[in-house]
Amino acid sequence: xxxxxxxxxxxxxxxxxxxxxxxxxxxxxxxxxxxxxxxxxxxxxxxxxxxxxxxxxxxxxxxxxxxxxxxxxxxxxxxxxxxxxxxxxxxxxxxxxxxxxxxxxxxxxxxxxxxxxxxxxxxxxxxxxxxxxxx
Length: 135
Prior knowledge:
By secondary structure, this protein is α+β, with helices and mostly antiparallel strands. The protein contains two helices and six strands; from the N terminus they run E-E-E-H-H-E-E-E.
């Protein structure tokens, strides 16, 4: 994802293909291909993909259901969300899954290009504070 004061884009790329989605409003992304896999090799397995799709769907529902009312606290809450355990937006290692499919959220990012501000958390957002950076 890239952005500036004129808009934001979400790019999915590999050496063969590039897909770019543009928005002047809001974008969100997940750990799986969102725009089709034609020309891409999707190596995400069933267990991993279920988690990513579930967390992404929940994030989209929260964001679209509250459009026009999105503030920093709400956005942080979206990234900390644990609805639909164990397949949540804020993902934690699920020991019931095969070891090769242990994954978790590595960080959370909230970016406001028009304000030139970004909030980052290292590790699971539910366990760490968001730090503000001014660009």
